[in-house]
């Protein structure tokens, strides 16, 4: 249930907000800190929870800031543009903006975008986009014109779409609106025409957008007071054919504000939007939270002193100009239910305690994970190191460690981690370990050169981590082809998603033998099969001599013959293990991992056919090994069980049946597997018969022992 | 160590009665349990769940309700329409009073404990005032149209809820009139049943009434408005019982399917103050109907037709996760139902209304000399029977009362037993294979009823503990008897002596009640010799060793003391074991020791058993410490003698026979063990409600 909390103001320094309000409010690399750019010359860094400014910078008299200051999340520097063309970069330590790094560009800048996990982007007024690095390398480079004359950029937003940055901007030309989506992994610029529907004479007052799986959901607030939704595909279906696809907008919420005033709109989450504006033409301005799913007004707050018609939303804070004062309204939203939306569910509104969201919002966390997974290699070294101005109070060891993880070297982290692990375990030990792992991974993602392998291994070996405690660990290991780590994860984590298991399997099968030899792999589950193989060979040969079978016989009906034939057919495939011991150990780790069939099957289909054949060969080999002894087990400390082997054979055959039937090299393998299974079935049916007789015998025996009401026995006490 | 021929007896077809009611008393931490045969048992939950007292059943007294009132007074009411108060000291019925409302189905004591409500067959709810000596009828509430099956007081004592058939009434205590009548839906899974019986109600302090009914529902009602608030459908069969914790933050219901459900009041969201009742844990410890449940501060207690009393500790309420946090399942009484005549190898089995006398069989294969059938003496061998066990006699009691206790004399010529109102003595004559029974009449007036009976070793004296605290000694002559002496109860106490022990030489008599110490009397001088200092835990078994006249006492906390009667002090061995402490596995056993015996040739040996093990304590061997293995089921095979001697300790345990109801030494090398396998009991119970199981 959405709720607005008590507002507070950030106005230690009076803001020289012009008639158009502020230029912008932007996030900083430290949580809780925001860069506020006013309409004139000043940039202020606020710490919101303390309601106090940490720093303030101004450009010289006569210069005008034309674009809101942003923070470069990769370096911690701040970037601002003044006089449309002059770029300034500075850090916390700088005092005077005149003396900081300056770059004059050849074209006018519209906005600079910066979000965590990627380098900042500069959007020019003509629609061209440049990465900051490229631009700084050559500031005077030529900037092309993308949009037509008289087309004006109205609004823009920068996203991470599945690890890749994407920029959307809306332009207007004679009352027509166009949306451009620029993707940077493919450098494709897609242009869409926004069809406004019937109400074509209304102007769009405000835009906001959010990511909805494969679409950008663009919400627009029209001057008729309604909110419309437009879905813009992220991946254009056929950009070649249709030069300018059109996207139609649909009505999402009707008449939420009166259309005459300056209104603003911001998406809060999947189902909630914040709307700023007067609900009725005559009334005062209000901030309202609407649930778009249930079309209900969740909460509303009156702002009697008027606003500038601007609204920013970061994390849990809504920023707006109330009168002349910048106001922050914390916003909380628990998972909404129909009952909650309709007001049926009562909620304990105790103002004193902070309400925490009680449900883990999987969508959000997953989205976050995807966004933060991006790790574009940064080509620029840090210009200057930022120093935390505040002094750390007494913090728990884990917090200290987390802050160490954020900035120190791998070696130092490793030492600190060892110290931390040596201390006494607290009840929340596993969550702390999870947090540390996530901290390490976060840094891995932002800093590609950073890979604290030893520390991660150490954490995994604490036996408390699970996949869900540190999502992304195995992905990073897969990315780095860290075989040893993957094996350890497979052995330790109980909850690895099938997709990841399968990705590991793929890697284990595809990696070259030479590469494998260099890697240190835990060989516990693999015992030396060579002796056994020798024995088997001998046995088989003896069998052949004794039975004197007919090799031309190809009839599978006779079980006895099958039994005797089995060895000869399988000799060529089973005399030696089809994979080297190290690979066998890795494959065994996969065999041991838990899975759910229906989730694993689709992923198994993606493995190339020759790898499937190899894996099947290995499984067949293990299966034969199992059958060598009466207990149906493999030698070794922690070998795969017969059930696991059988299950995986079934899975592989199920998933790749058609493929295996088609390829010639699998044919003999399948045939011998079939024959062997058939012979096994014969044995089993025989065993079944014997078992029944034994069961009866046992029953008789037991009855004799237990049903007797009276007996005289001998008891000896020791 | 010891090699024995064991007569393994399984023909004692004893079936405990089903449990009808349980009532938990928070102050004394005691649990009263009534069974379908009218027996009422008192368990002391503080003393390792020991059954310290029992009141014998009565055919006409089917108990339907049991409750504790102020001053730890225990009341029961039943289908004979009477309210009974029990005398917990003298182990007797204090009085019974007819409520004049037909069979009584329900009873509840007021929160203050000074008033008693009963719900009767004729639809009346009657209020009684509890006076110090008796209860007094006060008035009737508005008559309802059908029987009142359940009653519950509001904690403030101003209102009550009464469950009837198809509806629940809320009464105002002052006016005695029904304030609300809440109709219960008869529908059951869409099918309309004929009637919906409200088996239980609970009135919470916030005015919520919780009802459980025959349609399998647990329902929450608002007593202020008389409206239904919430329904939980918990079973396909009847929900038969409900009990609420004192804090009203959790309650428990029992169903006819044998399932017990725990409901807890939990917050809707983790920080909010709003709470709701949530069904949290199901327990399936019963196979049959759970007729009754109770909720102690730390445990859920349930009992039913399958005769088990189940005490399931709530793990979140248990502070220390030790052995007390384990589930307890009490099936067998903590007293002896079997006595044995060593000389004639007879076993006397006590049932509620009859006694069975059996003669044990024999084998020609002897322990040491190798016979022609097999090589005897190997552990675990079954010896061939040359003569099977004979059922010699079945002795039925007349009248509706249950047998309290019974005993066969060591010589096998006397059988004594007692009901609540009469003491019986029978003389047996053996002429070759013929057995004749003579009634010994004209029992002395003082011998009205007995709690415990004991014969002396030479069968010449009979010791009877009466339920008024006095002990009688009778001299037995051929076919008659003579009253020798009566030891009166200690001045000021009327506590009954539940346990007796006689020294083999017949000179000493030890008797123990439930709380005070063990008294030792001199039979020769007919006076009190000494009193063993009182111990915190009740005595579960007593015996006096031959020759040394050491009194061995077992307590419910599994401690064993050895007290020298001639020296009037604890023996050295007893001091030593108290100093070192018992092995932790020994202390963790959950059934009490019910019998202690001695070996005639080996004075250092003490034989004792509980329901799951038989043990010989060899006092000459070193005591085990916590590091040594207490119970070693495997015989030392190829270990060297040195190791064997080093690891040998005083406790020689066998867990071969279980559940073990009786075990004693017949002669030097022969034991008798009476087992009662649980499967055999289950086989004699009525079939449980059939539940569809997956795959069947």
How would you characterize this protein structure?
- The complex is a heterodimer of chains A (718) and B (696).
- By secondary structure, chain A is of the alpha+beta class.
- Among the domains of chain A are: 400-496; 498-528 and 574-664, no CATH class.
- Chain A contains 19 helices and 29 strands.
- In chain A, helix 4 runs parallel beside helix 6, helix 7 runs parallel beside helix 9 (483-492) and helix 9 packs parallel to helix 14.
- Chain B has 696 residues and is mostly beta strands.
- Chain B has four helices and 58 strands.
- Chain B has a four-stranded antiparallel β-sheet, with no helix packed on it. Chain B has a four-stranded antiparallel β-sheet with strand order 6-7-8-9, with no helix packed on it. In chain B, strands 10-11-12-13 form a four-stranded antiparallel β-sheet, with no helix packed on it.
- Residues 367-375 of chain B have low confidence and may be disordered.
- The A-B interface holds A 346-348, 350, 353, 355-356, 358, 706, 708-718 and B 1-11, 268-274, 361-363, 367, 376-383, 385, 388-389, 616, 632, 634-636, 652-654, 656, 671, 677.
- Strand 29 of chain A pairs antiparallel with strand 1 (2-9) of chain B.
- Chain A: It comes from Pipistrellus kuhlii.
- Chain A: Residues 1-332 form the Nucleolar protein 11 N-terminal domain.
- Chain A: Residues 399-718 form the Nucleolar protein 11 C-terminal domain.
What keywords describe this structure?
heterodimer; A: 718 residues; alpha+beta; 8-stranded mixed beta sheet; 5-stranded antiparallel beta sheet; 19 helices; B: 696 residues; 4-stranded antiparallel beta sheet; 4 helices; 4% helix
């Amino acid at each position: 249930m959405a709720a607005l909390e008590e507002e507070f103001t950030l106005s230690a320094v009076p803001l020289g907000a012009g008639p158009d309000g502020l230029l912008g409010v932007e996030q900083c690399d430290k949580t809780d800190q925001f860069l506020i750019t006013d309409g004139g010359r000043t940039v202020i860094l606020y710490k919101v929870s303390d309601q106090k400014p940490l720093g303030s910078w101004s450009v010289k008299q006569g210069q005008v800031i034309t674009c809101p200051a942003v923070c470069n999340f990769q370096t911690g520097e701040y970037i601002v543009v003044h006089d449309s063309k002059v770029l300034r970069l500075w850090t916390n330590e700088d005092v005077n903006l005149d003396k900081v790094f300056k770059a004059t560009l050849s074209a006018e800048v519209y906005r600079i975008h910066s979000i965590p996990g990627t380098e900042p982007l500069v959007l020019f007024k003509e629609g061209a986009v440049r990465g900051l690095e490229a631009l700084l390398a050559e500031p005077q480079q030529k900037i092309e014109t993308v949009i037509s004359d008289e087309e004006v950029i109205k609004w823009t937003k920068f996203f991470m779409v599945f690890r890749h940055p994407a920029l959307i901007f809306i332009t207007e030309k004679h009352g027509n609106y166009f949306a451009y989506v620029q993707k940077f992994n493919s450098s494709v610029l897609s242009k869409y025409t926004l069809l406004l529907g019937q109400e074509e004479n209304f102007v769009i007052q405000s835009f906001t957008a959010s990511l909805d799986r494969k679409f950008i959901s663009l919400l627009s607030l029209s001057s008729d007071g309604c909110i419309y939704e437009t879905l813009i595909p992220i991946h254009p279906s056929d950009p070649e054919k249709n030069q300018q696809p059109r996207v139609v907008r649909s009505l999402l919420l009707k008449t939420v504000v009166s259309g005459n005033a300056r209104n603003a709109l911001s998406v809060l989450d999947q189902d909630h939007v914040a709307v700023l504006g007067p609900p009725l033409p005559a009334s005062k301005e209000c901030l309202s939270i609407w649930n778009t799913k249930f079309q209900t007004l969740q909460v509303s707050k009156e702002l009697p002193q008027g606003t500038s018609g601007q609204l920013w939303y970061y994390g849990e804070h809504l920023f707006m100009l109330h009168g002349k004062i910048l106001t922050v309204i914390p916003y909380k939203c628990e998972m909404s239910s129909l009952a909650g939306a309709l007001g049926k569910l009562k909620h304990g509104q105790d103002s004193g305690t902070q309400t925490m969201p009680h449900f883990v919002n999987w969508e959000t966390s997953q989205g976050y994970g995807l966004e933060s997974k991006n790790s574009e290699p940064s080509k620029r070294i840090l210009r200057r190191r930022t120093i935390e101005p505040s002094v750390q109070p007494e913090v728990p060891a884990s917090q200290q460690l987390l802050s160490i993880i954020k900035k120190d070297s791998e070696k130092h982290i490793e030492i600190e981690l060892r110290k931390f692990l040596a201390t006494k375990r607290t009840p929340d030990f596993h969550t702390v370990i999870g947090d540390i792992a996530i901290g390490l991974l976060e840094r891995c993602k932002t800093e590609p050169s950073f890979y604290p392998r030893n520390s991660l291994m150490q954490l995994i070996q604490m036996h408390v981590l699970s996949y869900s405690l540190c999502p992304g660990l195995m992905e990073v290991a897969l990315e780095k082809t860290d075989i040893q780590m993957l094996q350890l994860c497979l052995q330790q984590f109980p909850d690895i998603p099938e997709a990841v298991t399968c990705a590991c399997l793929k890697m284990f099968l595809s990696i070259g033998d030479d590469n494998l030899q260099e890697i240190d792999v835990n060989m516990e589950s693999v015992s030396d099969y060579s002796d056994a193989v020798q024995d088997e060979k001998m046995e088989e040969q003896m069998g052949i001599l004794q039975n004197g079978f007919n090799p031309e016989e190809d009839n599978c009906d006779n079980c006895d013959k099958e039994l005797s034939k089995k060895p000869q057919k399988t000799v060529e495939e089973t005399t030696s293990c089809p994979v080297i011991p190290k690979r066998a150990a890795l494959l065994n780790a996969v065999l041991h991992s838990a899975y759910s069939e229906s989730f694993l099957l689709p992923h198994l289909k993606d493995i190339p056919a020759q790898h499937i054949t190899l894996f099947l060969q290995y499984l067949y080999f293990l299966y034969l090994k199992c059958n060598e002894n009466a207990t149906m087990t493999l030698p070794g400390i922690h070998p795969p069980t017969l059930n696991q082997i059988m299950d995986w054979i079934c899975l592989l055959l199920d998933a790749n049946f058609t493929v295996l039937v088609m390829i010639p090299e699998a044919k003999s393998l399948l045939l011998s597997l079939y024959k062997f299974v058939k012979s096994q079935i014969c044995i089993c049916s025989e065993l079944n018969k014997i078992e029944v007789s034994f069961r009866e015998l046992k029953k008789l025996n037991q009855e004799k022992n237990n049903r007797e009401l009276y007996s005289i026995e001998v008891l000896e006490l020791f | 160590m010891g090699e024995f021929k064991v007569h393994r007896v399984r023909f004692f077809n004893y079936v405990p009665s089903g449990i009808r009611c349980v009532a938990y008393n928070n102050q004394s931490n005691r649990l009263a349990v009534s069974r379908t045969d009218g027996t009422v048992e008192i368990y002391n939950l503080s003393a390792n769940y020991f059954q310290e007292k029992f009141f014998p059943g009565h055919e006409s007294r089917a108990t339907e309700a049991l409750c504790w009132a102020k001053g730890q007074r225990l009341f029961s009411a039943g289908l004979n329409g009477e309210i009974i108060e029990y005398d917990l000291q003298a182990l007797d019925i204090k009085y019974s009073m007819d409520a004049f409302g037909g069979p009584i189905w329900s009873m509840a004591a007021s929160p203050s404990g000074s008033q008693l409500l009963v719900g009767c067959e004729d639809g009346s709810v009657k209020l009684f005032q509890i006076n110090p000596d008796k209860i007094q009828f006060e008035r009737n509430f508005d008559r309802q149209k059908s029987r009142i099956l359940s009653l519950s007081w509001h904690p403030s004592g101003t209102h009550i809820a009464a469950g009837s058939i198809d509806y629940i009434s809320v009464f105002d205590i002052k006016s005695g009139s029904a304030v609300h009548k809440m109709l219960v839906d008869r529908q059951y899974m869409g099918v309309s049943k004929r009637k919906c019986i409200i088996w239980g109600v609970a009135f919470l302090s916030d005015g919520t009434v919780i009802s459980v009914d025959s349609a399998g529902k647990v329902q929450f009602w608002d007593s202020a408005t008389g409206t239904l608030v919430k329904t939980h459908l918990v079973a396909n069969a009847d929900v038969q019982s409900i009990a609420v914790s004192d804090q009203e933050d959790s309650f428990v219901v029992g169903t006819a399917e044998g399932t017990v459900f725990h409901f807890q009041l939990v917050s809707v969201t983790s920080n909010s103050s709003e709470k709701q009742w949530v069904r949290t844990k199901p327990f399936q410890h019963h196979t049959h109907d759970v007729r009754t449940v109770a909720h102690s501060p730390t445990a859920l207690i349930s009992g039913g037709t399958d005769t088990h009393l189940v005490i399931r500790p709530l793990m979140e309420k248990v502070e220390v996760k030790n052995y007390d946090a384990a589930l307890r399942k009490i099936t067998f009484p903590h007293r002896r139902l079997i006595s044995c005549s060593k000389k004639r190898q007879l076993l006397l089995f006590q049932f509620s209304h009859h006694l069975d006398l059996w003669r044990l069989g024999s084998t020609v294969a002897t322990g040491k000399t190798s016979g022609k059938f097999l090589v005897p003496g190997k552990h675990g061998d079954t010896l061939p029977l040359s003569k099977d066990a004979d059922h010699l006699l079945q002795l039925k009691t007349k009248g509706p009362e249950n047998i309290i206790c019974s005993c066969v004399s060591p010589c096998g010529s006397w059988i004594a037993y007692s009901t609540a109102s009469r003491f019986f003595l029978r003389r047996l004559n053996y002429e070759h294979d013929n057995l004749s029974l003579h009634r010994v009449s004209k029992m002395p007036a003082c011998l009205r009823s007995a709690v415990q009976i004991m014969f002396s070793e030479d069968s010449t004296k009979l010791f009877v503990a009466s339920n008024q605290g006095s002990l009688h000694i009778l001299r037995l002559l051929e076919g008659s008897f003579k009253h020798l002496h009566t030891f009166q109860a200690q001045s000021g106490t009327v506590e009954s002596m539940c346990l007796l022990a006689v020294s083999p030489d017949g000179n000493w008599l030890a008797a123990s009640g439930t709380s005070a110490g063990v008294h030792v009397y001199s039979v020769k001088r007919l006076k009190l010799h000494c009193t063993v200092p009182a111990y915190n835990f009740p005595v579960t078994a007593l015996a006096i060793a031959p020759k040394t006249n050491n009194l061995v006492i077992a307590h419910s906390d599994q401690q064993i003391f050895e007290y020298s009667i001639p020296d009037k002090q604890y023996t050295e061995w007893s001091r030593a074991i108290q100093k070192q402490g018992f092995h932790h596995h020994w202390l963790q056993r959950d059934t009490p020791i019910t019998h202690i015996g001695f070996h005639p040739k080996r004075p250092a040996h003490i034989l004792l058993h509980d329901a799951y093990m038989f043990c010989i304590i060899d006092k000459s061997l070193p005591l085990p410490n916590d590091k040594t293995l207490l119970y070693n089921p495997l015989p030392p095979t190829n270990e060297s003698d040195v190791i064997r001697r080093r690891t040998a300790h005083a406790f020689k345990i066998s867990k071969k026979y279980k559940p073990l109801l009786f075990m004693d030494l017949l002669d030097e090398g022969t034991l008798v063990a009476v087992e009662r396998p649980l499967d055999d009991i289950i086989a004699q119970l009525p079939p449980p409600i059939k539940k569809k199981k997956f795959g069947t």
